[in-house]
Specification:
The chain has one domain: Vaccinia Virus protein VP39 (Rossmann fold), CATH 3.40.50. Helices cover 43% and strands 14% of the residues. The longest helix has 25 residues. Strands 3-2-1-4-5-7-6 form a seven-stranded mixed β-sheet, with helices on both faces. The protein starts with 9 loop residues before the first helix and ends with a strand. The mean pLDDT is 97. By secondary structure, the chain is of the alpha/beta class. The chain is globular, with a radius of gyration of 18 Å. The structure holds S-adenosylmethionine.
Length: 281
């Protein structure tokens, strides 16, 4: 079947950085995440990962290159799984889902209402590339549009994950989105990977991320409790520092040492490694 690929904006094209990382992870002998569907989808698109030299460079070993993206997906899967374990009537939302098929990894009970949201062009692509039982849960919308939530059940607890999304939302759009989500659902959890101000600055200036740098419009934030001040009722439930992940032991010595050194400090962990922030409302 031939795939019709849209012309991607930089924000949309970023989905190949995360999809590519998970695909490369799945090709490792002992993967961190092991999402073979990511590899299948990537191969079907025929996308050339050379657009993201961070994934194709020989300067870093294969495990170091995929560690952050593969493991943050795994941690977000765990947050969603635990939530649906406690709330079989939950709504799960994966915001800025790209071509991810988290639903297959989490495998929720049929009582859960699962919603994957991304731009309509990306949802078209999901319908072409993903198994129908996965793409059926997709909603094509710009998350900055105030009305897209109207069609989502509002009387059930929700777990909302956003993997790699926040960097592509302007600050006021991000804060409005948090307000809309917390006002829509009676209670729930929100988890996403943190972009510090330094991480945004670095990503904007890295030549290896040139394909997406124009889309990086969020300034980032360094204090995980800031969203509590933006949105009344949002409470920081925890931070997950990948510098402290047990899987660090599976990295080569040099990377392991750097992450282990940073691990004792929350500040250094946020600066050097990937951090997930997890809120309740
Ligand atoms: C880095 S990619 C991550 C994709 C996916 N979560 C993953 O882990 O593979 C960021 C995604 O956010 C989506 N996105 C960015 N801004 C958006 C917006 N305003 N509305 C809907 N989707 C958005 C992009 O289209 C892209 O798919």
């Amino acid at each position: 079947m031939s795939i019709t690929m849209p012309t991607f904006t930089p924000a949309q094209e970023s989905l190949f950085l995360t999809l590519g990382s998970r695909a490369l992870d799945s090709r490792l002998p002992d993967p961190f995440l092991g999402d073979t569907m990511a590899d299948q989808i990537l191969r079907e698109t025929g996308y050339d990962l050379a657009k993201f030299p961070t994934l194709t460079t020989q300067r870093f070993d294969a495990r170091t290159k995929v560690f952050a993206v593969a493991l943050r997906a795994k941690r977000l899967d765990e947050i969603a799984s635990r939530f649906v374990g406690r709330h079989p009537d939950a709504v799960v939302m994966d915001l800025g889902v790209g071509l991810d098929s988290r639903i297959l990894r989490v495998n929720p009970p049929s009582t859960v209402s699962w919603c994957d949201v991304d731009f309509p062009q990306i949802v078209d692509l999901r319908h072409q590339l993903l198994p129908a039982q996965v793409s059926a849960h997709s909603i094509g919308a710009d998350l900055t549009d105030p009305n897209w939530l109207d069609e989502i059940p509002a009387d059930r607890p929700a777990v909302i994950v956003a993997d790699g999304l926040i960097a592509f939302l302007r600050q006021d759009d991000f804060v409005s989105l948090l307000h809309r989500l917390t006002n829509h659902f009676p209670s729930g959890e929100i988890a996403f990977n943190l972009y510090t101000t330094g991480a945004i600055w670095t990503a904007k200036h890295l030549r290896s991320l040139a394909a997406i740098s124009a889309g990086l419009v969020n300034p980032g934030f360094n204090d995980p409790s800031r969203p509590e001040r933006w949105v009344a009722g949002l409470k920081l439930a925890g931070e997950i520092f990948l510098t402290r992940a047990p899987e660090v032991a599976e990295l080569p010595l040099a990377t392991r040492l750097i992450l282990r050194l940073a691990a004792s400090s929350a500040r250094a962990s946020r600066m050097i490694g990937t951090t997930l922030v997890h809120y309740e409302f």
